[in-house]
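PROTEIN DATA CARD
Card holder: Glycolipid-binding domain-containing protein
Chain length: 206
Origin: Streptomyces xanthochromogenes
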Amino acid sequence: MPRGRYSLHDPHDHTPLGEEHFHCAPGPSGWRYVSQLTTPSGDHAGSVDLALDELGRPIRLELHAAAWQVRGAAIDGVTWVRTDPSGTHATEGNVRAHAFAGSSPAFLVATSRLLRLTPQSPTTRVRLVTFTDPVLAPRTTDQSWALMKSEAHATDNGPLTVDEYQVSALDTGEQHTVHIAGDVVLAAPGIELESLETPPSTFPAP
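Structure generated from the sequence above:
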């Protein structure tokens, strides 16, 4: 069960946004990721709980941030309920999208599991509902993903395969690179892996 810590920062001006303390693991039904978020000063800032089925689809999502809450799942596309800090108003949403996205590294792993690309795969388009910080406002986005290369690196625990993805935002044309090993993000815009207590879990080949 990988357990570790990511540091999060603004991908444009590198302002520190806090840290995400996580653990994740494959299970009989797929994969689960749980994390706690802290501010740069160390205060609690929210949490992420994401479970995927064996095909990489989100079967349960629960986000907390700034007293806002989102619960969602893949139902008729993706469906969610967003509750305000007072708990008196809840709005439901549904979009014909493939999965969820957000600032947590969990969503990058989840999208890679859903697409299951190989270096020979064509660039693949995916529609996501992104929950933006700090109030978890939903926004539908379209991205394209391509697995540029997959390389094995020697480690003390045996070879570690690192996948390099090129991710493009189709609305702006902005491109960035994401490096993922198993179920851990090694590097991505705004995300740095600061510590990892155990090696990443490996998934079956696509």
